Every structure is written in C-alpha cells, then in structure tokens.
Amino acid sequence: MFLSTPALAADKPSQDVTIPTPKAAVPKGERPQATPHAAPHLRAGVKAAGATFDIDGDNVGDNIMRLDDGTTLVWLSTTGKFEQYTINSDNPDERPKDILTPGNLDGTGGPEVLTLSTTGTLSLFHSEGVSGTGYSAWNGQGWQIYNKVVAPGDVTGDGKPDLLARTYSGDLYLYQGTGSDSSPFRARVLVGGGWSMFDQLVGMGDMNKDGIGDVVARTPSGDLYFYAGQGNATAPLAARKKIGSGWNSYNQLIAADDWSGDGLGDLLGRTASGELYYYVADGSGNFRTRQTNGNGFEPVELFAGSGANPYWGKSSLIGMDNGGTLYWYGVMHNGQFGARTKISDTGGWAGARIAYASSLDPDGYADLLEQYDGVLYNHGYGADDSLATGWSKYNLFLGAGDLNDDGKGDVLGRDTSGNLYLFRGNGTGASLASPLKIGGGWNGFDKIVGAGDLTGDGRADIVARTPSGTLYLYRGTGNSASPFASKVKIGTGWQQYNKLASPGDIDGDNRADLVAVNSKGELYRYSSTGQGQFKTRAKLGTGWNTYKNLY
Predict the structure, then answer these.
(1) What is the pLDDT of residues 417-458, one digit of tens each?
(2) Core-most of 152, 224, 408, 523, by most CB within 10 Å?
C-alpha cells in the first residue's frame, strides 16, 4: 500500500526550488596514433579479437562516457574528438545506472550497446554509428541482484561476446552469449565466489593473444590481478595472476578496448585530479609503460567499461545559511566542490525541516525533501504533491538510497520515541510505502547520515554519531525487514563537528563520502576507503559556519 494522500490546499510548504544541473566541460584528451591490424603475433590458428566497439569503421575502439550534466559522448578514434552520442531509451526520463559495450552480440551489423537501469532492466541497443543507437531491441529484468556487470568479450571460445555479473556477496556468474537479439544470453552459470575482494572489475577483451576475452581486477589496496579467459563455458577464467601494485592511484580503471590496433584490449586509468593514462596490452597478460593521455576527465561521472561498481543517486550538497537561504554545491569528482549556487529567495526557507535524499526517481539526481505540517514533500518531484502524510511524529529523516535491493530510492524516518522506520520508494519520487519499523533506541544518535555505498559492496549504508562523538557504521543488507547489519564502531572524536553530511561521491571512485564542519567553520572531506572506514581527512575550506546545517 502506498501513501500518496495529497496535502490540503491550505497546507503549503516552502517555496519550490530548482536544483541546478551540474556543469561539465568536455575533457581534453589526445588519442594515440593507432596502426590498424598491426600484427599481434597471435598463436597459430587464432584470430585477433579486435575492437569490440568500433563505430567509425577504422578497426580501433571508440569509447562512451557520460558527463555530470547528463550528456553522453563518444570518443572517436578517427578524429580524436568527442561527439554527442544518443542512446534512445524507451523512457527518456530514466538515466542508465551503467552502460556497457559488449561487442557484436547478434553476429550481424555493428556493435551493440547495453544499458542497466537502477531497477535492474538490462536493455540491448544496436549502434547506428557515430550519432547513437536505435531503440531497444531486447530488455531483460532482474539484474539489480548484481553490484557489477562486466563485458569481457568472448570467454567461452564460441566467438560470441559474453557477460559476467557479480552479486553483492561476491559470487561471479557467466552469461554466455547466444548470438540472438531476442534472447541474447543463456542461463547463468556460477564461476566462483570471493570476488567481493575487488573494488574494480574490468572486462578487457583479449590481452594474451589467444583470441579469448580476459579480465583484470583490483583490490582496494591497489594490487592488480589478471584472469585469463579459458574458452570454457563451465570454467571460463583461469586462476588469477598478480601483475602489479599501486593501482589505487586511480579512482577509475576503464577498458579502453583496442586502441593500438593490434587486436588486444588496452586499459585506461583516471586519477582524482582528472588525468587519464593509457596502458597498451603487451600480449602476455600485462601492460607496457603507461602513456599520458589527457586531462580534464573529472567531469566524467560514468565510463562505459569502468571497473567500479556503478554509482547513482546523489553527487551534490545543499547548505542552509543562518538566515534560511539555500545554496547548492555540485561535486567535481576530484575531492572538491564547485562554486555555490543560490537556489532560494533570501530567507525563504527559514525554519524549514529538510533533507536532501539520494534520488527517488529515475533521473539519478538528488531530491530535496521537506516536512511541513505533518506532510513530507518532494521538491524534486513537485512542491504541491506529497510523498506521505502523518509525519508530525518524525524528528529526523534522510534518503540514503536503495535499502532493499529493488533499485528504488528509500527514506528513513525516526520518531520522537527513537524508533527508526523504513519508507520504501516506488521509483517515481511521488509516494512512499507504509512504514516498516527497523528498531528502537535510535534517539541515542544526534546525527544519522548516508547517501550511497560506504563499504564497497554496492549497497547503501549509513553512519550514526552519538553526542559524545562516537561514529558507528550500519552496513546495508538489502533486506526490507532488516535493512542494516549490527552497528560497527568506526571512530571517536566526531563531536568536534557541528555539521555532518553525505554528499555522495566527491572524489570520483563511485563510493559515498562524508563532509564535516567544526566550530571554526572549517570543512573537511572524509573519503571512503570502500571497506567501511575513511581515509585521512582533507581540509576543503573555511567560512562554512555561515551555514546552519548541511544536507
């Protein structure tokens, strides 16, 4: 049952606001000169796999990426330029959570594009060249059970591209390609467990000259491993081989496809400062010395072929100043915020009770919630429509993201007795389900925040602080009846901060981070390690005591 009773006409919340669209500049990158079909010295009888996503016809890979402002680009090998690329989604209001370029799935024509929605729909599109795609030719449901889907190329040896998909618990499954549009993948086959140890999982295509797709995987500590494809549908990957360390200097590892024209899969690495580096496959399952490839890539919030768990739902911060004026800050994916934007009339939100929730609808942008006269409003959806009524008893609320593995953003509310409730979203941002009681004793915390994954498993988590300054982590479980595991103490001394918020991913690694302000007005960033802890704090600026609170 969904509570969508509209507020009475006389019940008017604060003035509506328009949340800005993030501003994004096109990156500055130079593609290396490729020599199409340069001999890769393959084993006898082996055919080079070649580029899996070549839309300009030069037999060298092209790359899809999406900027913060929602613009999707393709980086062309023939010109080295970025061109706008349109994926004709059946729902134009829905922003894909991930984009994959698996290769030629149906065996005819050009390469295909796959998109993954936050609610678990995997859609297949035919690329129609540089301009973009047609409409979806196939849609499959239920893929929200995975935190990562990877396109490694052909790992089974039948000449058809395959997929790998990892569950939240770390089990890896193979979906063998069929060569058919109407049913592109066979039933899944378990590859093995323990894959949750990796925070980056990249499908590379062929790296070792056997014509079979391969995988590289990185641990949070920066160790990189190579998994050779075996051409076997029941055991598609060989045992891992460590090929390097120090790879945690990159916030994203990205499959470059074949950039050198030798038929082998190459790799890209992006730093937090937006620099892009290029690694050519050496034919043995490793890479040659890196090459500088460009800068200004921090506005890219999604790379097709990225190894990170896809991030979706919130990448911004709202501050309410002491006079009740709202300001918005977009993240820059380099650990910093952009310049602030005033989003309300001066003093227009004085006394308002608000939260800034991870997206409750398909657009992927955060939603501004307000509790007014017992009604919860979503200003991202429309201030004259209510999410739910009967909210007078709740003294704290937040939208941490999807808490029950259905891909739809949810809301938490704490009542005056200290009971915490889960309000499941329906994916439209227009209503919430009836409350489910999580448990009591939550009035022992003076701050509860969260906006995404803090632990590296792809699920939304929260942190809660006691008045004495002890910080606890509540790991998300994906279970509506019990959405959080038992609390884990992760720090002390947090009472020094009078403001604590989670703006989502600040530093571009697809994991949620925290910001905190002390009595001096100094703002600090706490970047997630991806293992339920935070890196050493970084000072971002001063003067933040102008704000009454951050959201």
Answers:
(1) 999 999 999 999 999 999 999 999 999 999 999 999 999 999
(2) 152
Within 8 A by CB and 6+ apart from 544, the residues are: 319, 499, 517, 521, 522, 523, 550
Q: Give the model confidence (pLDDT) of 156-185 as tens digits.
A: 999 999 999 999 999 999 999 999 999 999
CA 241 to CA 243: how far, in whole Å? Answer: 6
Instruction: Name, in order, each residue with C-beta under 8 angstroms of 454's C-beta and a sequence gap of 6 or more.
Output: 461, 463, 473, 475, 511, 512, 528, 530, 532
Q: Alpha carbon of 53 to those of 61, 122, 130, 486: distances in Å?
A: 5, 18, 11, 44
pTM of the entire predicted model: 0.94
Q: Which two tokens stand for residue 220?
A: 């949070």
Distance CA 476, CA 458 (A): 9
- Could you identify the residue written with the tokens 């020599």? 35
pLDDT in tens, 79-93: 999 999 999 998 888
Helix%, strand%, coil% for the chain, nearest 5? 5, 40, 55
Helix (H) or strand (E) holding 241: strand 241-244
